[in-house]
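User: Can you help me understand a structure? I only have the sequence.
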Amino acid sequence: MGGRTSKPVKERGADRTGKKDEFAKWKKVFMAKYPDGVIEEDELFSIYSDFYPFGNCRPFCRMVFNLCSDKDKKGIYLGTFFDVVYALQWGTDGDRAGLVFQLLDCDKKGYIERGDVSKYLWCVGEMLNGICDERKTKKEHLQPALVESLDAAGKITEDEFISAVEKDIEVAKAFPCLM
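Assistant: Let's start by predicting it. Here is the structure, written out as tokens:
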């Protein structure tokens, strides 16, 4: 892994704490709408589209769906999806970084490469189009901090990724759900 040094990441997500009641209500609505506890990709896309109406959230939604999917089922279990959402919202930096790593490591190689990072950043940029400051969603702005953390072969393992996110705010900034 590269030799990047920066200030350690301090507490992030202080504004997340008041949203647990909102999350519980949201979960009840989902469970009422999908009593079998399974949601298909198109339905998940429709939900994401409501939250991100100005962007194209299908590529990011597909990444989330693949992370949560049971290959033997047609959809994803809402329990698994809610576990992911909960961990991204209230988990530790390491929990959230581990989930982002799994999103990036779609082919389950055990490491991510520059191309995986570029794909993720493109998906997030597409989804957030029109919502965020454009500068924050451009891959040329976000990617350098993480790229500096890659080893000489351009790869990073899950442990290295989590360590980089926990130690370096610039790496964490590349992934909006980690902030």
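Now, to help you interpret it: Residues 1-15, 133-142 have pLDDT under 50 and may be disordered. The radius of gyration is 16 Å. Let me know which part you'd like to focus on.
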